[in-house]
Write a structure and sequence with these properties.
The complex is a heterodimer.
Chain A (H helix, E strand, L loop, with lengths): L11 E10 L2 E11 L4 E5 L6 H8 L7 E6 L2 E3 L4 H6 L2 E4 L11 H6 L13 H15 L14 H13 L28 E5 L7 H16 L3 E5 L3 H7 L2 E6 L2 E7 L5 H9 L3 H4 L15 E10 L3 E9 L3 E6 L5 H9 L6 E6 L2 E2 L5 H6 L2 E4 L3 H5 L6 H6 L7 E2 L2 E2 L1 H14 L16 H13 L5 E5 L7 H16 L3 E5 L3 H7 L2 E6 L2 E7 L5 H8 L12
Parallel strand pairs in A: 3-8, 3-9, 6-7, 7-8, 13-20, 13-21, 16-19, 19-20
Antiparallel strand pairs in A: 1-2, 1-4, 4-5, 9-10, 11-12, 11-14, 14-15, 17-18, 21-22
Chain B lengths: L8 H40 L6 H26 L7 H19 L3 H24 L5 H20 L11 H8 L1 E2 L2 E2 H19 L1 H11 L1 H6 L4 H27 L10 H11 L11 H20 L5 H33 L7
Antiparallel strand pairs in B: 1-2
The chains are: A alpha/beta, B mainly alpha.
């Protein structure tokens, strides 16, 4: 077994680290050891605190309490640059690139090899980038701008960025012959490599290539922290695993001897069945209703292609797939936020005017967006104003917006959704994530929609509120609402949906009825591995 | 399923290559278009009135353009970081008046006067830059406030007085009127600043980081770019250049009042945007901005030579600005779309 004995000093460690955002405690007293030469898996549900932990390791967040240890000595990262200089490379789940700059500049920004007079050595930058691309086995031109790269290619750029990080000179005795990387040598790498869902958008070949690179790094003594929702990848690549749940560490142990079921139990902390309302099982009359929403051959060039499906009254249809598969983009186009290049959307049988959210709302469509704080809410406005926003045409008296009607509407929905708040005039920003989500839901449900599109409805909210949101969606569907639910949370998809649509790289690859939907069948279609050819939606 | 198939790297390469040359061509096209327009304008005006390209005509044109070019270079550094500096007109005005007062009172030569101008600009840039970068106040508001505050300081200082050319030492005035091998000093200085800035922005890490900040502020932070220090640096540069321009203003005109460059900030921003520096940051060069400044100045001079009412200048500048921004938007959409298509490497057939 490759697990290090307790002897060696962890290259990077967290000791009782806590981090809160407003009322949300994202991390509570988390301890983690990363040893040189190990690939360590970090597991946990969405919202368990993985991303926060990564940001602490990468210097993007400063912990409220607790310590970071580098080679056993306390260290403080004042920003990402500090972490980088200490040899900690982070591949973020959602790539953050400079669209206007070239791939090579994206990779080496701030660290470009230099020549005389301190000038950037463009040739060396390009050569080093080309070498990295060869190492990763991809043919990405170093000189092309990052604008327009697919999510997978953006991910490649992030990976290349992490791999290009030279081991810091002078900070430790470097292994023989690997001192500060000469330009063009892409062989040196970080001391600690953190990868947040690096494979989410990669093809099978690219994934294999990445794993080979990781294995090389590990053999050279790099400590790797690996996050993936694909459990089989963890078992293939990792030696130890730390499980987070609700911001706390549940366990840290060798992967050997664990089964996937063990891992899932630790992540979820209870049996899956308890989480989802029982009325979601066996509803025979479901799916016989009329199509409330029909999407016909919707295409947006380079984003998604030929998307057709229906959602019937009283039905919850999940849209599953990996990050970047184009699900959110489909929702945006259906609601008219983005213009589709081809195809049409029908609501209750009539064709929707394209690219008009106003028309979509008038037809009874509601969209609860993924980015709650950025798009779903005006966080500085009060709860009642937020809920009132979608009904400014209704809550009027004599042509003016009536505060009393607005408050009544808000109070009504606050009760129905069991919103926890002190005053309706409080700004939404002070609420917890789960309660903010309820306000967004209230805002849209108050419009009395016939079709509700929810994008990641429970991302980043606590388990209790999550269950409430699930119950609410079920109740709404039982009342005849058609629900289209985009979710990356597999248990949620399997627990809630009457049908599962799966997208992979901009295309619908499977439509799986509830009885046949399993973690395996959905993931297979989402990764494009052997998903069944999909018959056209009826 | 096509997913396990490795992309054919040769085909991928050639696709990417053409994508790159497309983008290159687009950006070069911007500068070529402006240069072309400039040439047409100059030739047309010359045909109508040959005096336009006489020795004195060309000299005047260059002298007139110098200060605007300088300010445009400073402004570009700020705009590239997705910020704006509206205070440059006021800074130039204050610096010109302060330098005039100082030179008249002390009789110092051009060296000390220029230093004073630089210092005044530096301080103004420091205040704006600190508020924008460390105070996290939107640049538009900060620099608009600075515009009025600095203007107010200028009025208070001048008390309605003016410094006339006869009070300014000859050494200072010679900086404005003298020349080297027939080329006046002012355009030479402006060109030197332009070339040095262009070289710096292109070849140094700090320069590239300014582009990175404008292109993706959050990505820049995650990449370890010291965003606030760099933005502060851009404002310091813009302010210092404006202070420098003020001292040159004094040298050129001799007579200065409290609000010399009143309203110039908008002309400067127009020149920068017309010259292809995106107002949303991340793209464009100081060379383009300088061409934009030269074009706007030439339009003004040409109108005078052609005896067209001066009020048309504003309208033409505005139309150019709108055309430039529309062109940016259209080109941006086209390029993004083209690049997106080329990067869909998993064979999504059309």
């Amino acid at each position: 077994m490759e697990q290090p004995d307790p002897g060696p000093v962890p290259v990077l460690a967290l000791r009782d680290v806590s981090k809160s955002f407003g009322a949300v405690r994202a991390l509570r007293d988390v301890t983690l050891d990363l040893f040189p030469g190990e690939v360590h898996a970090l597991a946990g549900e969405n919202g368990a605190g993985k991303s926060t932990l990564i940001k602490v390791l990468g210097g993007a967040h400063r912990p409220d309490s607790g310590q970071l240890l580098l080679d056993g000595r306390p260290v403080r990262f004042r920003g990402p640059a500090d972490a980088r200089d200490a040899g900690v490379a982070v591949i973020h789940q959602e790539p953050a690139l400079f669209p206007d700059l070239s791939v090579a500049e994206n990779i080496f920004m701030g660290r470009q090899p230099r020549r005389s007079l301190g000038r950037i050595d463009r040739r060396a930058v390009r050569a080093a980038t080309a070498a990295l691309m060869r190492r990763l086995g991809v043919g990405l031109d170093p000189d092309r701008p990052a604008r327009g790269l697919s999510i997978a290619d953006q991910q490649i750029v992030e990976i290349a960025k992490a791999l290009s990080l030279p081991a810091p000179a002078g900070r430790r005795p470097a292994p023989a012959g690997s001192l500060p990387a000469p330009a063009g040598d892409a062989g040196s790498a970080a001391r600690v490599l953190v990868m947040d869902e690096p494979t989410a958008a990669l093809t099978g070949g690219e994934t294999a290539r990445l794993f080979a690179v990781v294995e090389t790094l590990r053999a050279e003594g790099t400590a790797v922290l690996f996050i993936s929702h694909r459990l089989e990848e963890m078992f293939r690549l990792c030696t130890r695993v730390t499980v987070l749940r609700d911001g706390q560490r549940v366990s840290s142990e060798p992967l050997d001897g664990l089964t996937e079921d063990d891992l899932v139990r630790r992540m979820v902390g209870r049996d899956l069945g308890e989480l989802y309302p029982e009325q979601r099982t066996g509803q025979a009359e479901r799916g016989n209703g009329k199509a409330a929403l029909a999407v016909r051959r919707l295409t947006r060039e380079g984003v998604f292609h030929d998307i057709s499906f229906e959602v019937r009254r009283g039905e919850i249809v999940a849209l599953a797939g990996l990050v970047g598969a184009g699900r959110t983009e489909v929702a945006q186009a259906v609601f008219g936020v983005d213009r589709a290049d081809a195809g049409r959307v029908e609501v209750a049988g009539s064709v929707l005017r394209p690219a008009s959210p106003t028309a979509a709302m008038a037809a009874g469509l509601a969209l609860v967006p993924e980015d709650r704080r950025g798009r779903g809410l005006v966080t500085s406005l009060s709860i009642e104003h937020n809920i009132g926003l979608t009904g400014l045409g209704v809550i009027r008296r004599g042509g003016l917006v009536s505060r009393a009607l607005e408050r009544g509407r808000a109070a009504d929905w606050a009760v129905r959704l069991r919103l926890k708040y002190s005053r309706l005039s409080d700004p939404v920003g002070v609420l917890s994530g789960g309660n903010q989500q309820k306000v967004v839901l209230a805002k849209w449900l108050a419009t009395g929609p016939g079709v509700l599109i929810v994008d990641e409805p429970t991302r980043g909210i606590d388990v209790g509120t999550k269950a409430e949101v699930h119950r609410l969606l079920s109740a709404l569907a039982a009342d005849g609402l058609a629900v289209l639910m985009i979710s990356s949370d597999l248990p949620e998809v399997l627990g809630m949906a009457d049908r599962v649509l799966v997208m992979h790289e901009g295309r619908l690859t499977a439509e799986i009825p509830r009885e046949l939907a399993t973690e395996e069948s959905v993931m297979a279609a989402a990764t494009g591995r052997g998903g069944r050819a999909r018959e056209d939606a009826v | 399923m096509t997913t396990t198939v490795e992309r054919p790297s040769a085909a991928g390469q050639s696709g990417e290559r053409s994508a790159r040359s497309l983008v290159d061509a687009v950006f070069r096209a911007r500068e070529i278009t402006i240069a072309g327009a400039l040439l047409l304008l100059v030739l047309g005006t010359w045909a109508a009135n040959p005096r336009f390209l006489s020795d004195q005509g060309v000299k005047d044109l260059l002298l007139n353009a110098s200060i605007l070019v300088l300010l445009a270079v400073g402004q570009s550094a700020v705009v590239i970081t997705r910020n704006i500096d509206l205070s440059v007109g006021s800074v130039t005005g204050l610096s010109a008046f302060a330098c005039g007062q100082f030179a008249a009172d002390s009789g110092h030569g051009p060296g000390v006067v220029l230093l004073l101008g630089l210092g005044i600009g530096f301080v103004c840039g420091l205040v704006s830059g600190a508020l924008v970068s460390f105070g996290r106040v939107p640049a538009l508001v900060v620099t608009l406030g600075m515009l009025y505050v600095i203007q107010g300081v200028g009025y208070w200082w001048a008390q309605g007085e003016q410094i006339s050319a006869s009070e300014v030492p000859d050494g200072v005035l010679r900086l404005g009127s003298g020349s080297l091998l027939g080329v006046p000093y002012l355009p030479l200085l402006a060109f030197a600043v332009l070339a040095a800035t262009g070289w710096f922005l292109r070849n140094y890490r700090t320069g590239r980081e300014l582009y990175a900040i404008g292109s993706g502020p959050e990505a820049a932070r995650l990449a370890g770019v010291p965003v606030r220090r760099r933005v502060l640096g851009a404002y310091l540069f813009s302010g210092t250049v404006a202070g420098f321009a003020g001292a040159l203003w004094l040298a050129r005109f001799g007579t200065v009042v409290a609000d010399n460059a009143h309203g110039w900030e908008l002309t400067v921003v127009s020149a920068v945007v017309v010259g292809g520096v995106a107002i949303t940051g991340g793209t464009g060069t100081v060379w383009g901005a300088a061409l934009g400044a030269l074009l706007l100045t030439t339009i003004g001079s040409a109108l005078a030579v052609l005896k067209i009412d001066a009020f048309w200048q504003g309208a033409i500048t505005g139309a150019l600005l709108l055309a430039a921004i529309s062109a940016d938007r259209i080109v941006n959409l086209r390029v993004t779309r083209a690049l997106r298509k080329r990067s869909s490497r998993h064979g999504h057939g059309a």
